[in-house]
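Sample pair:
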Amino acid sequence: MNPESTGSTSIEPLVEHLFRRQSGRIVAALTRSFGASELELIEDAVQEALLSALRLWPYRGVPGKPEAWLMTVARNRALDALRRRKSWRDREDRVTADLHSRSGDTAAEPELDRPADDELTMVMLCCHPALPRDAQIALTLKNVAGFGVAEIARAFLARDTAIAQRLVRAKRKLQEIDPPFVVPPPDELAARLDVVLEVLYLVFNEGYATHQGDELVRRDLCHEAIRLVELLTGDPRTSTPEASALAALFCFQAARLPARVDHEGEPLRYDEQDAGRWDAGLVRRGLRHLDRAARGDRLTRYHLLAEIASCYTLARPAGAVDWPRIVTLYDELLAIAPSPVTATNRAVALAEVEGAERGLAELSRLEAEPLLESYAPFHLARGELAARAGRPDEAKRYLQRAWQLSRSEPVRRRLARRLREV
């Protein structure tokens, strides 16, 4: 025990940190032993282990191996619950033997002996194709990243009850199909991996530009997405060029996070950011991933998005962006993955090459797109370009619309200031 770590005020942050870092590994390890059909029971057992730590550690001190302690308590809680079931008797010998083979003594504190492999398998399980996309995201955040229901709800603009119901339905589906806790075989892996990459892309994007609330950026979401995608790139079975491209994109984007908001938390335009605050370590990681992404012969949207992000992050001096190159990359992206949002971004880049009027003309062609009517960045882009083109009344109208649509308080404050300036 560590006698220095007593007192609830010092214990709670430690337990929260450990739980955030270790809960996904514990859930994965127990799912390997007990099966995906017992996911709800496993979640409850892990939660009980957390509560036990909060209750006992302030008085007994922190164990020498706190991660193993949490694993032991969670495992024992799950075993106790399962032993109360008659149906458990047929499986008990097999599961106990599995636990024994990995810990040497089921009464001892088990080590998390293969966390990376277990977590990778857990990601694949959470993104099972039998589950709808929103459930895949929620399960990944809950059982791999260690997010609570309230955190997931805040991140994706949903009610706590809606997220909880989504998770319940997903776990019932897994209980019904009871998929094996294994990385899919090669003939199924490519399709499953596409789903996993899409889920991680959505998670990162929500962290990079949170749609609602008092914070513009959720760094925990961004860095969790990086951790999980690097879990994929670190395993030979899932280290594809597409995964490396997505990892490069995340690293380049996250490298600029320290300079993306001002001291009041309001967003800064790219040309307002202090490049000296960008994370050089993440830039180097991004370059390594980008190099590995070039191994294949398939050009995906992740490759193009990573290349676009690199144009911003590697521009030297800061701000000397190769805008014609970015326009060309957006043209290629629209050819393989057409999207009105991508077309909006291309129009903004085109304005840097051919002027604000040219960019406005491109955006005008997009105004009939139903998706863009409620997309605040589209109206913001029109407002900024109209201001540059010397059309203050038009700029004010578009910026006002962007302000009305935005649910992010930092963005709303910035837009209110821009409206006063215009």
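The first helix runs from residue 8 to 34.
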